[in-house]
Specification:
globular; seven-stranded parallel beta sheet; 7 strands; 179 residues; alpha/beta; 7 helices; Rossmann fold
Length: 179
């Protein structure tokens, strides 16, 4: 499975890097391909290193203005013109999406795939990995949107909230019929 991971390129502390590394190792050991932003810095590097070391494949999609941060040893690297093209390519190459901790770029990427799913333009599984309660506030907001009629589909049709990396990968594999 090609698993797109949206996440931060920032250097973060162990409460975020440990679960990210754990998910990366599970992904690599499972024989999956990491589809990610292509950067070799911060949390993006942690995940790419973990997948690579566990035998997984790396498919990066960077953008021209970040080309200085691109990972040299990826199995495949695509450089997009801009962030919109990058996001479209990331989703095009993916069978599933995992959203890890991140800032505004990660949130933008997450809401893009959820909007596509909401309108029936994608059926790929999406997991928000809620490391250390990072997405508790967002989950609350989504539940309010659902309760007040802003979502035409049940929230559970759009996204699965996982508290641990093993639960995130198990959900994705089950949704794709992988045992």
């Amino acid at each position: 499975m090609n698993i797109c991971v949206f996440l931060s390129s920032a250097d973060l502390d162990d409460r975020y890097t440990r679960p990210a590394r754990e998910f990366a190792e599970l992904l690599g050991k499972g024989g999956h391909t990491l589809v990610w932003g292509g950067s070799d810095v911060g949390l993006m590097k942690v995940v790419a290193d973990g997948v690579h070391e566990a035998g997984g494949r790396l498919l990066g999609v960077s953008v021209e203005f970040l080309s200085a941060r691109v990972r040299a040893q990826a199995d495949e690297m695509i450089v997009a013109r801009d962030l919109a093209e990058r996001k479209a390519l990331l989703l095009e190459k993916a069978d599933a999406v995992v959203v890890m901790v991140g800032g505004t770029g990660t949130l933008d990427e997450a809401t893009e795939i959820l909007e596509l799913k909401k309108h029936g333009h994608s059926d790929m599984p999406v997991v928000l990995l809620n490391t250390d309660g990072f997405y508790d506030g967002l989950k609350q907001q989504f539940l309010r949107m659902e309760d007040e009629g802003f979502l035409p589909r049940p929230l559970t049709d759009l996204v699965f909230f996982a508290e641990e990396p093993v639960g995130a990968l198990a959900y994705l594999e089950e949704s794709q019929g992988i045992e």
